[in-house]
Amino acid sequence: MSASGKEGQKGAEPQRANLQGANLQRVNLSNAKLNGASFVGANLSGATLMKTELVGANLQNANLSGANLSESNLSNANLHSINLSGATLTKANLSNANLQGAELSNCNLNESNLMEANLVEANLSGAKLANVGIQSANLTKANLSKAHLTETNLKGADLSEVNASEAEFSNANLSQANLLKANLHNAKLSGTKFNQAVLSEVNLENAEAHNAIFEGADLTNANLTELKGEHANFQGAKLGGAKLIKANLANASLQMADLKNAYLSCSNLERANLTEAVLEKADLKEAILKNTIALGANFSKTNLAHANFSGADLKGAILEEADLNKTNFAKADLTGANLRSVQAQHANFSHAKLDNANLSDSNLESANFEQTSLVESNLSGVELKNASFMGSNLSQANLSKANLYKVNFSGAVLAKANLSESALQEANLAGANLAEADLSGADLSGADLATLFMAMSGISIAVEPEVLAEEPTRVAVDVPVVEVPVVESSSVAEPEVSTPASALNLTLEDLPAPQGLLALSEEPSVPPAVE
Question: Using CA atoms, how far apart are residues 369 and 403, in angstroms rounded to an integer?
Answer without folding.
Answer: 15
